Amino acid sequence: MSKNQENFIPVVPMRDIVIYPQMMAPIFIARKKSLTGVENAVLTEDHHVILLAQKDPSVEDPKQPDLFEYGVLVKVVQILKFPDGSVKALADGLNRIKITELEEKEDILVAKYEALKEEEISNDESKALLNLTVEKFKEYIRKTTKINAESFVSLAEIKEAGKLSDIISTYLTVNVIEKQKVLEILNTYERLEFVSKILSREIELIGIEEALQEKVRYKLGKSQKEYLLREKIKAIKEELGGEEGLDEVEELLQKIEEAKIPKYVKNHLNKEVRKLSKMPFYTAETSVIRTYVDTVLELPWSKRTKDMLDIDKAGKILDEDHYGLDNPKERILEFLAVKKLSKAPQATIICFTGPPGVGKTSLARSIARSLNRKFAQVSLGGINDESEIRGHRRTYIGSMPGRIIRAIQSSGTKNPVILLDEIEKMLPSHMGDPTAAMLEVLDPVQNSHFTDHYIDMEYDLSEVFFIATANSIDRLFKPLKDRLEVINLPGYTEEEKVNIARKYLIPRQLKANGIKEDQLDFSDEIIREIINKYTREAGVRELERHIAKACRKAAVEIVKTPSATIKLDKENILDYLGAHKYIRQEAEKEPQVGLVHGLAWTEVGGELLEIEAGIMPGKGKLNLTGRLGEIMKESAQTGFSYIRSNYDKLDLNEDFQEKYDVHIHAPEGATPKEGPSAGIALALAMISAFTKRPVKSDVAMTGEITLRGRILAIGGLKEKCIAALRSGITNIIVPKSNEKDLTDFPDYIKDQINFIFVENFDEVLEYALLKEKEEAKI
Fold first, then answer.
1. What are the residues whose beta carbons fall under 8 Å from the beta carbon of 225, sequence distance 6 or more?
2. Which of 196, 677, 688, 697 is catalytic?
3. Residue of 169, 533, 720, 727 marked active site
4. Which residue, 69, 200, 498, 664, has most beta carbons within 10 Å?
5. Taking the mean position of all CA atoms in its chain, how far away is CA 52?
6. Is 720 one of the catalytic residues?
7. Residues 6 or more apart from 655 whose CB is under 8 A from it?
8. Each residue of 391-420: pLDDT tens digit?
9. What's residue 586's pLDDT?
10. Is-contact 282 226, C-beta < 8 A?
11. CB count in 10 Å sphere of residue 634
């Protein structure tokens, strides 16, 4: 029997849920049409609403074809509104219904329905089915954790087959289609039979799950819930007969097997992967092991480039990239010659020293190119942690290999050229001494079995060509210094700078700024003008910056006038580079009393040191200013003592030191000055001040003085000579014992300089100190 409803009442579409009669259930409503429908229903006398399940829950605005034909009539008992506008309604299921007419009115779904009556079947067979279904549901409750056992107490009292079917259906985790079918079956026996079949199927699935769980239970630890899920997946794959593809562990094992790595490395990695396979999938340790295995496999254990042993070709490459630098080029060719004759690996660890900008880093790149090897650079400036060299142990979060291993990894070969840049600037700290760690890297005896803390296996560094660079090796750890073959790269002369600018710097900057060679002309004269009046350096970095600046200014003019051809000269250079930065003062060109040109060597190359001495009434006090170092102050004391012990030879009164104070000053006080090589210049400045005899202005000098007036050898002679030439001085007083150093000087330096070799301070006085004031002519 059925009863038709003549009036339209609101319809609320339901997603993933089916409500049955004689049930009180909360429903959540958020869609605008549904909200309006519920609000309209609450205003009516009976509060009725029809609930229809959607066929596809993803449809946002369902129409009649998207909804099932059968539903349930409910009474809205209570509604609760939330701040976001949604509503929670408590619905009381009244009856099964079938939609007879559905339409949309005033932006809400409304429908007419036919009320459906159940076909109640009550006989012995139905009672037996009811008891069987109850027993099945008991078993289902025991096996599943999804239902509270207390729920069964109320179910045991239900004797109506239809009502029992509806209630059990609400507890089952089955899809909407099956729950909808339970709603649509009006025959209570058939409905209970259908629900009983679903129960049997669900109990069987639970049994399969239990079997799978038993299969993997022996592998479980106390806190390995996630591991259970992983093993379940494995067991499911086995039940299904396996799937195509490899899991991550098998993939890693295959990569290890295919990799060209030593046997001891392969065994170690296999051990790590076996450890990985026993771990829960999402723990932090699994990520650490996977990263470790990938890092070790990326290392070039056997891959190496073939050395190019053609000496002529290698020499041509070195000459193409760098002007001069004969000593380092010769050493590389020696390395190639020995490599060609002997197959034994060479323990080659070269250290280029010299001021900034002379080409140490770029020379290392050229060496790699000439050898046909990969190049990697490791910047060591400011490193104060031993782990930066030896690597971090894997127990630490974010651990990684040391910089040496990372450089080899990035190069991709076992025999790269690795540049250890600024090796003298590593600093010991509470985290260890990186210079001590570097001993193992650079020791030819030890580095064949170098062990990085992260890799935790020996790695052979004996095939790596290490090249270190330093501005000065004076501060270098002595045991580390002993492992280096030091090659000094002195500063460039003006002539060398002109050639470097012409061959390398200007073409590079023209290309970088998009200027053609015929659009901007740098003559040799203007290059010298830039060198002398805009730079004061041992290298060529500042020179290249000024060339780049001129190119940028020219680029602006060329853009404005594409046909322009620009020729730089002394007149227009000021427009391109601004005012001159360095100008030699006129007073320096005339012989002066108490003014001597000394020569000093610093980390940035040779420097011309103007030393001024003045006397004033006093009590023999010696004042030293201009940031003179301790050794330089001692040299001044030694020179002063020499003057006091030779007062008669210098035509001074015996008590001259009791009447006068002496003040020695080295201008440019912000620059620190150190070393004994300015001894003769300090002594000569004081003698000139006491005797009122001027010193020749076209002479520079270097040498250490003793109390007896002997002149001792000094270092850095080439850099000092270059500094003198930069300042236009061509006469240099040099200790006789340094004469042997001239054999390594290029001819163009020896041709420009008049060397005056001296053994005693008397010879310095004879050459540099003028007799009388009127002779003060250059």
1. none
2. 677
3. 720
4. 664
5. 60
6. yes
7. none
8. 888 777 778 888 888 898 888 898 898 999
9. 41
10. yes
11. 13
Q: Is 677 among the catalytic positions?
A: yes
Check if the beta carbon of residue 216 is closer than 8 Å to that of residue 228. Answer: yes
What is the enclosing helix (H) or strand (E) of 200?
helix 188-216
Question: What pTM, to 2 d.p., does this model score?
Answer: 0.59
Average the pLDDT over 9-35 and give the result.
87
Q: Which tokens belong to 230?
A: 């992983």
Q: Name 604's Cβ contacts closer than 8 Å, sequence gap at least 6.
A: 355, 356, 471, 537, 538
Residue with tokens 């890693």: 252
- The predicted pLDDT at position 246 comes to 44
Question: What's the pLDDT at 360?
Answer: 85
Digit-coded pLDDT (tens) for 721-736: 878 887 788 899 999 9
Inter-axis angle of helices 263-277 and 248-258, to 10 degrees? Answer: 180
610 bridge partner residues: 597
Q: At what angle do helices 124-143 and 188-216 cross, to 10 degrees?
A: 30
Q: What is the pLDDT of residue 600?
A: 80
Find the distance separating the first CA and the last CA of the chain, reported in whole Å. 137
Q: At a CB cut-off of 8 Å and minimum separation 6, what does 148 contact?
A: none
Query: Among 686, 689, 698, 670, which residue's Cα sits nearest to residue 767?
Result: 698
Read off the amino acid at residue 79.
I
Summarised one tens digit per residue, pLDDT across range 645-692 is: 888 888 888 878 788 889 999 877 446 667 788 889 999 999 999 888
The distance of Cα 214 from the centroid of its chain, to the nearest Å, equals 49
